[in-house]
Write a structure and sequence with these properties.
Elements: H1 4-17, E1 28-29, E2 32-37, E3 48-52, E4 62-69, E5 74-81, H2 93-96, H3 102-105, E6 117-126, E7 132-136, E8 139-140, H4 143-166, H5 180-189, H6 195-199, E9 200-202, E10 204-205, E11 208-209, E12 212-216, E13 219-227, E14 233-238, H7 244-261, E15 267-273, H8 278-285, E16 290-294
């Protein structure tokens, strides 16, 4: 298997070349997904290698990432945070306490990702033969040194993800579902005892439930229901691991489809989300026929008494 120093050297040389192909790069590192990018359609000003936990996307989340600032000859291993991210989890404050923002470290010369934090910065140069070098504090960095740095931030990341999933203050312990299918099934199975069941009916055809993953010619609606009193249609979409803008756009498309398909303007939209972020707030202000439900489920652990016998 390629050593890390060889991988990074290959990455840096390719970053200079303008070649955008990434098929040759590993897809996993220490249990995390590994993704490499040199740009889409045109060479990026800042190529990157990111390491992500399950359910976290590069476009909206937090993760360790190498950022190659070609204009600065810097390779920075960072506590990465997606630009414009509205992801509800992030790096623990203790990890960032003594770290600089990339914007501060580069005196605002970084063309992108200035809101991420520097974990380790390396200088990219060349030796007397012209071969690319990776240095820190004026000395070449060994493969072992690079591995130690990466494994260190990956351990911090693993702990951060674990804290987000299991600590008392975590989003998981507050009842946020990370498996959207589980949440969708939970809503359906508990419909009659939920707030939804008080106002809306699920749709059955020939005795078969068709509300869940309701089929349309533009995709599947997560849940399609009807108001008990008026019979008006209600489109319910879960805010999955995507941006608020994507979720609102998706909801509006399905509402438009229902309006045309059933020749009615009386269509309500509902977004089910784990948190109410600012983007969602502003969008909902302009959509008076739409609502947001925040889900929160409590979990209780009980000792199995037989284990003491």
């Amino acid at each position: 298997m390629m050593q890390l120093i060889e991988l990074l050297t290959t990455f840096l040389n390719q970053g200079k070349s303008g070649d955008l192909k990434t098929a040759q790069y590993p897809k996993e590192k220490s249990g995390f997904a590994m993704k490499t990018s040199f740009g889409m359609g045109a060479p990026a000003r800042v190529p990157w290698i990111a390491f992500t936990a399950p359910e976290i996307k590069v476009s909206n989340g937090f993760y360790p990432v190498y950022l190659y600032y070609k204009s600065l000859d810097k390779l920075i291993l960072t506590y990465g945070i997606s630009e414009g991210s509205d992801h509800i989890a992030s790096w623990p404050k203790s990890a960032l306490a003594d770290c600089q923002l990339i914007s501060d470290y580069t005196n605002n010369d970084a063309p992108r990702y200035g809101d991420s934090y520097v974990f380790k910065a390396y200088e990219v140069g060349a030796d007397d033969s012209g071969a690319l070098t990776i240095s820190s504090d004026g000395s070449k960095v060994s493969n072992d040194g690079l591995e130690r740095d990466l494994e260190s931030i990956l351990r911090t990341y693993a702990a951060a993800v674990e804290v987000e999933l299991r600590s008392e203050d975590s989003v998981e312990s507050k009842g946020l579902f990370y498996m959207e299918k589980q949440l969708e099934d939970f809503i359906i199975h508990n419909w009659d005892v939920s707030e939804f069941g008080e106002s809306y009916d699920l749709i059955y055809e020939n005795g078969e439930l068709v509300s869940q993953q309701f089929v349309t010619d533009i995709g599947r609606i997560d849940i399609l229901a009807r108001e008990k009193d008026s019979g008006a249609y209600v489109v319910i979409e879960l805010k999955r691991n995507q941006t608020s803008d994507d979720t609102v756009g998706q909801l509006a498309r399905y509402m438009g489809w229902v309006s045309e398909k059933y020749n009615t303007k009386d269509v309500t939209g509902i977004i089910v989300a784990g948190a109410y972020d600012k983007k969602l707030d502003y969008a909902m202000r302009m959509l008076p026929s739409c609502k947001v439900f925040i889900y929160n489920v409590s979990f209780t652990l009980k000792e199995n008494q037989m284990s003491n016998g």
